[in-house]
Structures are given as C-alpha cells and as structure tokens.
C-alpha cells in the first residue's frame, strides 16, 4: 500500500511538472504598459519652435491697458501668422495696429488676421505700430516686473514669452483708439495713456 501511494504521488508530481512546462507563454499574464506621456501645456518645446520673440518688453503703466513689443523671428519655410495671445496678467489680450484714418489722424485698432511673420524673416512690434495690447489689467505694472504671454500661430503652435516691464517715453504715441479695438472708443485714452 505504501508503495502504491508513493508511486501515485510520484506520478502526480511528474504530471504537474510536465503540464507546467507545456504552458503557452501567450497564456501568461503580462505587465500593463505604462501610459504614454502626454503634453502638459500648450507651448512648443524650444527645439521645435519655428518662431521666437526677442527683446520682449512691456510698457510700465498704472492704466488698465498697455502695449507689448519685441521682434518675432521665424525659421519656418512658410509664412506664419500670429493670430492670438493670452496672459494671466490681463483680462484679455488683443493684437493691434496703428493706421492713419481719413483725416490723417493715427488710429489704434485691432489687427484683422493677425501679424504675418515671413518665412525666415522677422516682424517687429513697436510703439506707434503693430503691437500686442494687454487689456483690463487689474494692477499697475512696475519696471522690473515680468509678464508671461502665450502667443498662438495659425499652424496651431504656441510659444511662451516672458517680457520685462520697462518705463519708456511715449511722445510718439499721440494716436487715439479706433473701431474694433475691443474697448469703448469714447473711453479709449490717447497719447501717453494709450500705452500702445
């Protein structure tokens, strides 16, 4: 009886060993693959940026609006258009141009279609011309502060720009607000208070 029991146990052990060796590897549980990393922001990594902004600065102000200036430079093979901008420092942001009206007066207005940055070229934003306008500021901007903006282009890419607040003379800024600038035209300040 002992011999039979021992024989049965040996056969059972051998069968278990044989079955474990024949298991299909595909039947084994696999470790789940880690989820693919997804972008955490809307900005394009520096090495992939086709447009950069250099010498970015903001005019210091105590008014509820001010201008952002600098030089946009493109390394793209096709023209790109700056179509929008945002900043946590402002209630909203607009792209502005300064043009002469029928009376010859210089008028600031929202730029339809945005700013074209030519392929391999530059587009300058400067006082009295094309500029980015920070609107509905909730506090004064003092020299030395930084303002962060996100600039979005027509190809869907965005870049983050840090612009330093600087004091600057505004004698060339004698224009007034025009149609389509997003503020009440009669309330739009002219001259130094326009800050654009």
TrEMBL record:
Q: List the keywords (alphabetical).
A: Signal
Q: Where is this region: Disordered?
A: 22-50, 167-196
| Highest taxon, organism lineage | Bacteria
Could you say which residues form the signal peptide? 1-20
Signal keyword on record: yes
Q: What is this protein called?
A: Copper chaperone PCu(A)C
Q: Which organism is it from?
A: Cellulomonas bogoriensis 69B4 = DSM 16987
């Amino acid at each position: 009886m002992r011999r039979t029991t021992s024989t049965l146990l040996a056969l059972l052990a051998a069968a278990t060993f044989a079955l474990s060796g024949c298991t299909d590897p595909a039947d084994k549980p696999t470790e789940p693959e880690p989820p693919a990393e997804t972008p955490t922001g809307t900005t394009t990594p520096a090495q992939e940026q086709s447009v950069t902004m250099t010498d970015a600065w903001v005019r210091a102000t105590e008014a509820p609006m001010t201008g952002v200036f600098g030089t946009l430079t493109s390394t793209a093979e096709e023209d790109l258009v700056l179509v929008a901008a945002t900043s946590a420092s402002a209630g909203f942001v607009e792209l502005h141009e300064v043009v002469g009206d029928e009376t010859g007066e210089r008028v600031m207005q929202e730029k339809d279609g945005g700013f074209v940055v030519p392929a391999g070229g530059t587009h300058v934003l400067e006082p009295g011309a094309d500029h980015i306008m920070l609107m509905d500021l909730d506090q004064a901007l003092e020299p030395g502060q930084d303002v962060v903006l996100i600039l979005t282009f027509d190809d869907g890419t965005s870049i983050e720009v840090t612009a330093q607040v600087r004091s600057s003379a505004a004698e060339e800024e004698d224009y007034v607000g025009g149609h389509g600038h997003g503020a009440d035209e009669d309330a739009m300040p002219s001259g130094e208070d326009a800050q654009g």
